[in-house]
Design goal:
The structure holds 2 protein chains of 2 kinds. Chain A is mainly β. Chain A is built from no helices and 11 strands. In chain B, strands 2, 5, 6, 7, 10, 11 and 12 form a 7-stranded mixed beta sheet that branches.
């Protein structure tokens, strides 16, 4: 039973526009959330994280929003660039050890 | 910069073979993990280790075992490989506390 869900398997966006990726979770004990980016034939790389004590965290073009009451988080990429084309994984943790991952969303940025 | 190295990028094994996947990290991290990635399922945790000789089952440990004899090295063992273990295997490490995982580049295992 997946506790972290990314319901959109893919997203296509024009270069320069905003990409919005969504993630829902079911475990109310989750208090640390992360986004990872993965290119083909490489391991996932850490992008941005947010603690449950915040509702927004920003790092350059990437912003993560957390809505605890809705058990929902989103990643905004503004502006989208061709190098952002990758698979994005949402992850969540309720402890110092385990991270639970979503199934991923493939983002394609069109020129 | 953290480096997590997986010994093989691609492996092809036969059903019933014993398979060893090796992982080494160079940042003295306490915690190490093995995940598998399958289409539509994301990354699923097989086993993790929070100290030398310590291990904990993840969400899908059946058919796997692990070994951590040294802090920097974490091995995943398939005792008797089966075709449903064909997958991308990802090793990761992290420091204590709420810190991000650092992943290796993965091993694509095919069991025929």
């Amino acid at each position: 039973d997946q506790q972290v869900k990314q319901n959109s398997p893919s997203l296509s966006v024009q270069e320069g526009r905003i990409s919005i990726l969504n993630c829902d979770y079911t475990n109310s004990m989750f208090d640390y959330f992360l986004w990872y980016k993965k290119y083909p034939a490489e391991g996932p790389t850490f992008l941005i994280s947010i603690s449950s004590i915040k509702d927004k965290n920003e790092d350059g073009r990437f912003t993560v929003f957390l809505n605890k009451s809705a058990k929902h988080l989103s990643l905004h990429i503004v502006p989208s660039q061709p190098g952002d084309s990758a698979v994005y994984f949402c992850a969540a943790s309720a402890s110092d050890y385990k991270l639970s991952f979503g199934a991923g969303t493939t983002v394609t940025v069109r020129a | 910069d953290v480096k997590v190295t997986q010994s093989s990028r691609y492996l092809v094994k036969r059903t019933g073979e014993k398979v060893f996947l090796e992982c080494v990290q160079d940042m003295d991290h306490e915690n190490m993990f093995w995940y598998r990635q399958d289409p539509g399922l994301g990354l699923r945790l097989i086993y993790f280790s929070y100290d030398v000789k310590m291990k904990e089952k993840g969400d899908i440990p059946e058919g796997y075992s692990v070994s951590r004899e040294k802090k920097e090295r974490f091995s995943l063992i398939l005792e008797s490989a089966s075709t449903n273990q064909t997958s991308m295997y990802l090793c990761a490490s992290r420091d204590r506390g709420r810190t991000p995982l650092h992943f290796g580049n993965g091993t694509r295992l095919t069991v025929t």
